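Lab meeting, action items carried over

1. Structure of the two-component assembly. Owner: GW. Status: complete.
Input record:
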Amino acid sequence: MSKVQSGDLSKMGLLYERYNRDLFAYFFRCCGDQTKSEDLVHSVFVRIIKYAHNFEGHGQFNYWLFATARNVWYDEHRKKEPVKKSDSWDHNIHDTEAVHSPEEEMQKKERKHLLIKAMTMLAPEKREAIELSRFQGLKYKEIADLSNCSENAIKSRVQRGLLELKEIIQKLEN
Amino acid sequence: MSDSSDKCSSVINLLVSQLDKGGFHEIHLEKMVAEHPGCEAELRDFYKSWKELEIIEVPEPSEAMHARFYKSLSEAQTQVEPKVTFTSVWHTFNLWLQNLAQPIRWAMVAGVFVAGLFVGKIAFAPEKEQPFLVSQDIKPAELLYAGLNDKVSASERLLGIQKINQMEKPDDKVLEALYQVLSNDPNTNVRISAVESLVNFAHLPNVRQMLIKSIPQQESPLVQLALAEAMLMLQEKDSADEWRKLLSSDHVEVDVKHHLEETLETILY
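Predicted assembly:
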């Protein structure tokens, strides 16, 4: 990253290769739309190319990356209506299905479907706390820093978020 | 919320803290359950919800996303090419020198003088000059050829192409390497970058012919579209026959065919 900051953009390709999938997964779990997630990944890297000099050089690069991703996500939703959920998720669930025994597969698919719907119905700050800690390996302290709140608030979001997720799934099942 | 849930809330809070530390497994859960038997159900439920999130599968991002990024990177790199002038180098050196203590400053000046004598001697020796210039030109081409044999990664090949883009007048060997990449490289992004790089040098002899010759060899829709846009930009009517052959072959998907015909309208008709 320090080489990118000093104007050596050729190293940006290496950063992209290292992080593009994580970033894509982050957006995909937020909105469930492949095309939109790819657009957002592109926006993040364009910002990083443009504002590389703002990276302060301390802390992990992925922390700064997700802070940028978070801003891109919120900018996107300031402009537009909330994310459409089920349609795009349905489409992508079928795209990523692996084929197993029919009954098991059906149950797994239904459960996955419920879980995905429930995730998108969760409050954004809770979903984000779960996503960043569960899938992107960020510590609560790091999530707290980039969310401008306390570590305890993030812990509470993860805790409440998961409990709410269970409740939403139960409601959807009934 | 029930009494037991209230009571177990602080135990779940402990579990949430443990999850943040990483390396939490079933065995650790069992230990917590043994320590807090009254909250067994709550602990197991919570951990199940945490683990279950794994079943959400994420697809692979498309090749188009990668191609789009490398295109933006290539554009940014051409714009932000650092201009190293004698004045800027002297200014930086002068500032640095001023920050040093007096004796170190004089030692540095003497050191630079002696180094200058050596550099001068080497630089003005005629037999040393040629290999330096030749290796500077050949290196990216060698990188690209190595890529065709899977000896270097796609990122390194893309860097090789970026280096070629910075050359004012690449020699035939470099251009031939770009053509080979466009015709044979296994990676779509690398082939698209080769198209863009060759377009930069379309004023040089043979480059347009290289682009035209590569048309029938492309099976990737993204590369076909990149080539079509390049031909449109260059208004290369000599490419019409190759496009007609490609469009009548089985190598073009129906949607892409329609798009190509629209793009190439001024060239084909």
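2. GW to write a short summary for the group page. Key points so far: Chain A touches chain B through 48 residues (CB under 8 Å). Chain A is about 75% helix and 0% strand.
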